[in-house]
């Protein structure tokens, strides 16, 4: 007899759930108390780069409103809050011989203290894309591995020292894929490099994304070593890297090439960073396709990078259909996806999920469970924190505020994705320990400016930055109450 058996779903009783943000997207205070510019401050000034011509100059003004933000977190019942540190607030010029800005340090120390006083566990990201502009001007930023690694190591040490035992969960880098590909190949993100072979610090610009990725991996590993050697015993925290990655389904489920391409897509997006971190080497599919454009690890580097995660930080939003492109174009130097097309519809015209305000984001909750399992299988069941998950809503920004606050689409997204995650834990035996929804509030959505809203809180930018919790903000606790303590 065939019958439908509902999957078991549950999460551990000490599960940490809450919300995430990033410095440049919410803080504002661009020149406050000695902050130096980052590559995003510069990038936003280039006409045409940001959809609405805006910038993070003011954003949600969180630099001056942390008390309000913490109150908001408390209202939702959140147990954790992920924020990032603006490197150029702490060291305005960024470098290891440049002056440290005490006011910048004080801001983050107080933020951590206030969160702890409110009973909220801080998750701190050291780098969420806002590289000090000076380091880009000085030596090309990520493109100069040795300089970048030394400066990031110094910055990390300064922050570890200052925040100390207040922080038990550190994230080195957020989504290096985006810094590498969107920043150094597509040009949609700062510093806006595109594949123009004639104008590159490294000669051939089609090498840039892989060099950027390599530098970030080495910088991550150095920061982890510093934390483990100098701070872990004293402060008792853990440290890892956060990687983005979507689930993949074959365009034609009966075509083996499409099925193979699905795994290859994940390797090019995620394993690019995760394989070095867990295995000390790049995925074979990347080595094969990219050839000498992919940097190689020295034995020493490989040793350093291997094992450099105490946990896996997972950012996840959506899924796509994948169609193998045919072997003829394998050598395309600008192909960063692994020789495939990334599609919203399968061979039969089925859509992977409904449209949102973000061109790349189509919700498909079953893919979340599958990807958690896929990663758990590949990397030996690591401890996972979901460090971002969320959605925008098509046309949300054009609605009157009352309607924006009734964000049922987002609520349903969270309900289905969190259920899928709870199934990955209870049914598939994956070790997910925390979940931070993106985002605590509407904010500066990078190249999309303020037109795209990801917040569970509406921010009224025109009227004193007032915050209004949406329905999804207040329902999150109910969703987690259903699952927490059930495994
Ligand atoms: C993440 N894409 O970025 C970031 O970590 C957040 O800062 C951001 O606000 C959030 O997702 C929502 O976009 C991504 O184009 C941005 O595929 C763009 C893409 C993926 C991730």
From TrEMBL:
Q: What is this enzyme's class at the first EC digit?
A: hydrolase
Family matches, as PROSITE patterns: GLYCOSYL_HYDROL_F1_2
Q: Which reaction is the catalytic activity of this chain?
A: Hydrolysis of terminal, non-reducing beta-D-glucosyl residues with release of beta-D-glucose
Q: Name one Pfam family in it.
A: Glyco_hydro_1
Xref: SUPFAM superfamilies: (Trans)glycosidases
Q: GO MF terms on file?
A: cellobiose glucosidase activity
GO annotation (BP), single: cellulose catabolic process
Which InterPro entries does the record associate with it?
GH, GH_1_N_CS, Glyco_hydro_1
**Purpose of the protein:** Plays an important role in cellulose degradation. Shows hydrolytic activity against several glycosidic compounds.
Q: What is this protein called?
A: beta-glucosidase
